[in-house]
Write a structure and sequence with these properties.
single chain, about 180 residues, Nucleotidyltransferase, domain 5, two-stranded antiparallel ribbon, two-stranded parallel sheet, 6 helices, globular
């Protein structure tokens, strides 16, 4: 809940106060998928979910993947890093359930520059939420929803997120 402090404008000698509650252990976790569908009129889209005072483990990620798969009928190529939340029995069960439409591509270890969603986290944390000190996790969650809702269909912005990664288009999307 502590803000990422960045530079700000203020009159010389008048540092703006940044009030925050101390010693709190509240948090908001976010999972997101940047999707691309060449047949869709919008082309790119963003699907995300948040957890207030929770974290994404493999069971929650499997649920996220299932909800993402139920939103559409197109083929999906999931590009994941090697995090523990992307492995295990719940993930394998979801892969089996949607095997006809789902292909999982693993990123090499320590390669965030290939993940198309990583620039989104940087934009959100270092840009939109810099110097933001919410009073509680629920307020932070609403702000995160507001920020992500504002760009979820912005083709130029989403295209820039994809292009900021060094990942070429997955083969499954080109078939």
């Amino acid at each position: 809940m502590g803000p990422l402090l960045r530079r700000t404008w203020s009159p010389r000698g008048r540092t703006p106060p940044l009030h925050q509650r101390g010693k709190q252990r509240e948090k908001v976790s976010v999972a997101a998928a940047l999707w691309w569908d060449p047949q869709a009129p919008r082309g790119l889209g963003l699907y995300y979910e948040t957890l207030v005072n929770g974290y994404y483990n493999n069971q929650r990620m499997a649920g996220f993947l299932e909800r993402l798969m139920r939103k559409g009928r197109q083929r999906v190529s999931a590009v994941w890093d090697g995090g523990g939340m992307h492995k295990g029995d719940p993930i394998h069960a979801a892969q089996t359930q949607f095997a006809s439409r789902l292909q999982v591509e693993r990123l090499p270890p320590y390669a965030p520059m290939l993940n198309p969603v990583e620039p989104l986290w940087s934009w959100l944390k270092h840009g939109r939420l810099a110097n933001y000190a919410p009073p509680d996790a629920a307020t932070s969650d609403r702000r995160i929803h507001d920020e992500l809702d504002a760009i979820r269909c912005d083709q130029g912005f989403l295209r820039s997120m994809w292009q900021a990664s060094e990942l070429p288009l997955p083969r499954a999307l080109l078939l």
